[in-house]
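Researcher: Let's do a round of design. I'm pasting the structure tokens now; please hold your answer until I've finished.
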């Protein structure tokens, strides 16, 4: 199914149906029930984490430029402090591994679907003197909940990856999370949400790898503890991750983010003891969608590498220093995109968030 979706995205196919008409009535009733419970709390406006991280490493080397694109997961909706967002966690980790400052620019938009990536990429590439060295895209959940055709979703994502790669940026895609882990979703909608999420994640992997990107499967947001401990790892609205949830996601994405820049101590050579393999890209994508935290990267066509990178210590986040040379029109666009109330929250970003977290070994 993932191969068919990716092929439809590449060659202009239409939507691919997943259900018969007999199931629609039951599922619509389940959807209405879930809507009453998901989002019952209030998700705070995501705080702005843009700025420079790792200023202690300032030296002759130019700062690395990290771009974040996607939906509310990439923006960090559900937490109050900038240091708790995925962007801040990844920028701090990248600065610690590279021993260079990292300039973070996050153009993700809560509620965004894959068709918004065109606007986000244009915003990120508008200033050619500040083209990102590497970009992280997290997208897909809103495509599922809004029933966007999977072929359209993958086509938009593949186009975004291609544009970023053409501009010279490396790209890591966090694929569609497993919406079957959301606590208020009941059967049979839970089964359907899991099935559709995984199919989209696998198709996203195929489309991204074919355009020169790497993917990391977010799956059940990177850990079975989301189902076991939803009160701890979901935010107040029962939908967006909590600070612990975002930290768990960042732990899994960071190794691939560093590896794509040649900074990770592990090579791309396969480790059989860690169940790594070289597979046809569609099979690698399908297997990755079933196991959160799995990396897929292109090898010689039509093969791909399936990797389970070791997770290391996640550094404590630091205060983001404002980026220099922010143009007036960018300030306006950022304010329009990220919400008017965010500037007031940046005063909290000076706090340190404790000792580095211990990362679980796979």
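Researcher: That's everything. Go ahead.
Model: Designed sequence:
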């Amino acid at each position: 199914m993932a191969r068919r979706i990716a092929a439809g995205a590449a060659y202009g196919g239409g939507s691919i149906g997943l259900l018969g008409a007999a199931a629609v009535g039951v599922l619509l009733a389940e959807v209405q029930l879930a809507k009453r419970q998901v989002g019952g709390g209030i998700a705070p406006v995501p705080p702005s984490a843009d700025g420079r991280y790792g200023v202690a490493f300032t030296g002759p080397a130019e700062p690395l430029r990290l771009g974040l694109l996607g939906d509310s997961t990439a923006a960090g909706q559900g937490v109050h402090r900038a240091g708790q967002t995925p962007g801040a966690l990844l920028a701090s980790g990248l600065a610690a591994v590279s021993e260079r400052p990292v300039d973070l620019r996050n153009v993700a938009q809560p509620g965004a679907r894959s068709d918004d990536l065109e606007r986000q990429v244009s915003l990120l590439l508008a200033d050619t003197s500040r083209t990102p060295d590497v970009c992280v895209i997290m997208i897909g959940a809103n495509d599922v909940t809004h029933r966007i055709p999977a072929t359209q979703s993958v086509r938009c994502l593949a186009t975004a990856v291609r544009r970023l790669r053409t501009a010279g940026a490396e790209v890591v895609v966090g694929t569609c999370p497993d919406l079957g882990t959301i606590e208020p979703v009941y059967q049979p909608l839970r089964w359907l949400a899991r099935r559709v999420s995984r199919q989209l994640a696998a198709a996203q992997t195929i489309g991204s790898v074919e355009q020169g990107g790497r993917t990391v499967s977010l799956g059940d947001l990177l850990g079975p503890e989301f189902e076991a401990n939803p009160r701890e790892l979901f935010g107040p609205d029962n939908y967006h991750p909590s600070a612990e949830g975002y930290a768990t996601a960042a732990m899994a994405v960071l190794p691939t983010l560093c590896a794509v820049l040649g900074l990770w101590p592990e090579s791309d050579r396969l480790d059989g003891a860690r169940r790594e393999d070289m597979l046809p890209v569609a099979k690698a994508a399908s297997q990755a969608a079933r196991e959160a935290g799995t990396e897929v990267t292109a090898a010689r066509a039509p093969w791909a590498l399936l990797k389970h990178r070791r997770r290391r210590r996640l550094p404590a986040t630091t205060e983001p220093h404002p980026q220099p040379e922010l143009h007036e029109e960018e300030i306006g666009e950022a304010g329009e995109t990220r919400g008017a109330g965010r500037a007031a929250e940046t005063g909290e970003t000076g706090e340190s968030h404790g000792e580095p977290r211990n990362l679980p070994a796979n």
